[in-house]
Design goal:
Layout lengths: L3 E2 L4 E2 L4 E2 L4 E2 L4 E2 L4 E2 L4 E2 L4 E2 L4 E2 L4 E4 L18 E2 L4 E2 L4 E3 L3 E2 L4 E2 L4 E2 L4 E2 L4 E2 L4 E2 L4 E2 L4 E2 L4 E2 L4 E2 L4 E2 L4 E2 L19 E2 L4 E2 L4 E2 L4 E2 L4 E2 L4 E2 L7 E4 L4 E5 L13
Parallel strand pairs: 1-4, 2-5, 3-6, 4-7, 5-8, 6-9, 7-10, 8-11, 9-12, 10-13, 11-14, 12-15, 13-16, 14-17, 15-18, 16-19, 17-20, 18-21, 19-22, 20-23, 21-24, 23-26, 24-27, 25-28, 26-29, 27-30, 28-31, 30-32
Antiparallel strand pairs: 32-33
Length: 249
C-alpha cells in the first residue's frame, strides 16, 4: 500500500490508513481514526480518537523563515489534534498548533505554528489562521476569512466570508514596526460581516457586530452595531440577538 510508517509511531485500534502515507517518528494516532490518501504526519504529532483527516493534508509542518522575516526559527512542540476532529483535504496544520476536540477544519485551510484552538469550532474552506493566535470555543470562521498573527478570539464569535484582519500599521516599512505588531481581539459573541476589514490592534467587544464591508479603525463597543468606512455606531444590537438570549439552555 506504499505506506511509510515509522516503527516508533503508535496507531490505535480500528484506525484506517490510505495509500501513499508518511507517518514519522513518535507520532501517536488514536482509535477509530480515518487517514486519507497522501497524508503526511510529522514527528511527534498527536492525533486523538475518532479523528478524520482527508487526502493530501499535512500535520506538523515546520515553518519557513525568510531572511527578512520578523519571526525566527525555534524549537516547536509537536502538533496536537483532539478527539472527534474532522480535517478536510489539502489542509496544512503547522507544528506547535494545539487543537481541541470536535473541531471542523475544512478543505484548503491553513493553521500556522503556535496556534491554540479550543473546542467545537467550525473553520471553513480556505481560512487562514496565522501564528500566535488563540481561539476559544464554538466559533465559526467562514470561507476565505483571514485572522492575522497575535490575535485573540473568544467564544461564540462569527466571522463571515472574506473578513480581513491586520496587525501592522507600518505596512512593512520602518523597523519601528517591530515594536508595535498587534493583532485584533474579538471578544465573546462578537460578529463580523462579509468582506469587513479590522485594522491592527482593534477590539471588537462582547456581542458587538461589524456590518458587511465596514472598515474598523476604532474599537467597537459592547453590544453596538457599526457600519461604514470608517465604521461608526449605527445602533444597539437587538435584544433578541444578544448571545445571552440565544445560548442553548
Amino acid at each position: 500500500m506504499n505506506q511509510q510508517i515509522s516503527k516508533s509511531a503508535t496507531i490505535g485500534k480500528e484506525t484506517k490508513i490510505g495509500f501513499n502515507i508518511i507517518i514519522e517518528d513518535d507520532v501517536r494516532i488514536g482509535n477509530n481514526c480515518f487517514i486519507g490518501h497522501n497524508v503526511i504526519i510529522h514527528n511527534g504529532s498527536k492525533i486523538g480518537n475518532e479523528v478524520r483527516i482527508d487526502d493530501n493534508t499535512i500535520i506538523g509542518k515546520e515553518p519557513l523563515f525568510a531572511p527578512r522575516s520578523i519571526f525566527k526559527a525555534k524549537k516547536f512542540q509537536p502538533s496536537v489534534i483532539g478527539d472527534n476532529c474532522l480535517i478536510g483535504a489539502n489542509v496544512v496544520i503547522y507544528v506547535g498548533s494545539v487543537i481541541g476536540y470536535k473541531n471542523l477544519i475544512a478543505d484548503l485551510s491553513t493553521i500556522r505554528e503556535d496556534v491554540k484552538i479550543g473546542n467545537l469550532n467550525i473553520i471553513g474552506r480556505n481560512v487562514t489562521i496565522e501564528n500566535f493566535v488563540n481561539i476559544g470555543n464554538r466559533n465559526k470562521f467562514e470561507t476565505n476569512s483571514y485572522i492575522t498573527a497575535y490575535s485573540e478570539v473568544g467564544d461564540y464569535c462569527f466571522i463571515a466570508p472574506a473578513v480581513a484582519t491586520s496587525n501592522d500599521n507600518y505596512m512593512g516599512r520602518d523597523k519601528e514596526r517591530y515594536k508595535h505588531f498587534k493583532g485584533v481581539t474579538i471578544k465573546t459573541g462578537g460578529r463580523i460581516g462579509v468582506n469587513a476589514t479590522i485594522l491592527p490592534g482593534k477590539v471588537i467587544e462582547e456581542d458587538a457586530m461589524v456590518a458587511a464591508g465596514a472598515i474598523v479603525t476604532k474599537d467597537v463597543l459592547k453590544e453596538k452595531i457599526v457600519v461604514g468606512n470608517p465604521a461608526y455606531i449605527f445602533r444597539d444590537v437587538d435584544e433578541k440577538q444578544l448571545l445571552k438570549n440565544n445560548l442553548d439552555k
